Amino acid sequence: MASTPSAHPDVMEKLVSLCKRRGFIFQSSEIYGGTGSVWDYGPLGVELKRNLKDRWWNAMVRSRDDIEGLDAAILMHPRTWEASGHVAGFTDPLVDCRNCKKRFRADDPKIKGTPGQPDAQCPACGMKGTLSEPRMFNLMFKTFMGPVEESASVVYLRPETAQGIYVNFLNVQQSTRQKVPFGIAQIGKAFRNEITPGNFIFRTREFEQMEMQFFVDPEKDHMEWFEYWKAQRMAWHLSLGLDEGRLLFHQHTPEELAHYARAAFDIQFDFGGTLGFQEIEGVHHRGDFDLNRHQEYSGKKLEYFDQPNNRRFVPFVVETSVGADRTALALLVNGYREETVEGETEGRVVLGLPAQLAPVKAGVFPLVKKDGMPEFAEKLAKELRSAFPVFYDESGAIGRRYRRQDEIGTPFCVTVDGTSNEDNTVTIRDRDTLQQVRVDAGKVKGWILERLGT
Ligand code: ATP
Question: If you measure from the C-alpha of residue 346 to the centroid of ligand 1, how many angstroms do you get, rounded to a whole number?
Answer without folding.
Answer: 39
